[in-house]
Design a protein that fits this description.
The chain is an alpha+beta fold. The protein contains 9 helices and 10 strands. The protein has a single domain, classed as Jelly Rolls (Sandwich). Helix 1 packs across helix 5.
């Protein structure tokens, strides 16, 4: 169905360049955005949790695949990845039609040898298959390569340009190309992109850190409030907490009790009057 290959950008790429590629093809790789030692550090921090993670229970989640979540709570290095300046600037650009965006999912995906390919899908189908307008992106996603991604070890299979396809298509691996990349690189893709994990035909485990973002008026895939215990959340910077969802998602979404800013639940000293971080949201109420 496609003869396109995945475009690659240098680590000096701008958010505008990333957004342009995502608008055109729904997918792009930024090569070696962090050094391999950053990935090694994240791997070391998460190894005990990966060892305790069960494999998937169905074909979609993968019977030889471990999906380890709660990365904000478990890995200081992953907190850095969640807040990487290029990623946040790109997400803000892609999701700019909404008042704000939030962290949607954090997950280390470990695909063991002999795992077959995953069903080709769109991530935004998680929202109960709602038919979002074609010109309104609700997700901006990343997969960071903790190991090299090769066709042999199950690099993510993508269909460049499929962000413009009709919804609910049944596509196959033959329609896809591998998004190969080196350790420390990051794959950007939108919620509308048709994609799926490739088959791991190697003798090694393929690992990638899936960190995704969505517009703030949608429910998060990973419940950040329960995934990150209060005692850890209280130690995190306010900017990260707001990204996790301790913020209003729009003018009247997500406040606490008497219309309080959600951040004051964790940090009472930051109580503000008015709308706090959403003071500018009232411009959207003008007739």
């Amino acid at each position: 169905m496609t003869n396109k290959t995945v475009r690659h950008l240098a680590p000096t790429a701008t958010a505008e360049e990333v957004h342009a590629e995502l608008a055109a093809d729904g997918v792009v790789v930024v090569d070696e955005l962090v050094t391999p030692d950053v990935m090694d550090r994240a791997c070391e921090e998460l190894e005990p949790f990966v060892a305790a993670t069960a494999v998937g229970v169905d074909d979609f989640s993968g019977h030889r695949t471990r999906r380890t979540g709660a990365l904000v709570a478990r890995s200081p290095t992953c907190r850095e990845l969640v807040q990487h300046p290029l990623v946040l600037a790109s997400a803000k650009s892609v999701l700019g039609k909404a008042t704000s965006f939030q962290l949607h999912l954090t997950q280390l995906i470990s695909i063991d040898p002999d795992e077959p390919a995953q069903l080709i899908h769109r991530d935004q189908w998680a929202f109960d298959f709602f038919p979002f307008p074609a010109d309104y992106d609700v997700q901006c996603n990343t997969i960071w390569a903790m190991t090299d991604f090769t066709e042999e070890n199950g690099a993510t299979r993508v269909i460049p340009g499929s962000n413009h396809f009709e919804d609910k298509l049944r596509l196959t691996q033959e329609d896809t190309v591998p998004a190969e990349m080196t350790k420390g690189s990051v794959l950007f893709y939108t919620g509308r992109l048709y994609h799926g994990a490739g088959a791991n035909r190697s003798r090694e485990t393929r690992r990638g850190i899936n960190i995704t973002y969505c517009v703030s008026w949608l429910r998060q895939e990973e419940n950040q409030y329960l995934s990150v215990p209060f005692e850890i959340a209280r130690t995190l910077p306010t900017e990260l907490l707001r990204l996790m969802g301790y913020a209003r998602g729009a003018y009247a979404l997500g406040y606490v009790d008497d219309a309080r800013d959600p951040i004051v639940v964790l940090k009472p000293e930051e109580a503000q009057t008015g709308l706090g971080e959403l003071d500018q949201a009232t411009v959207n109420l003008d007739p």
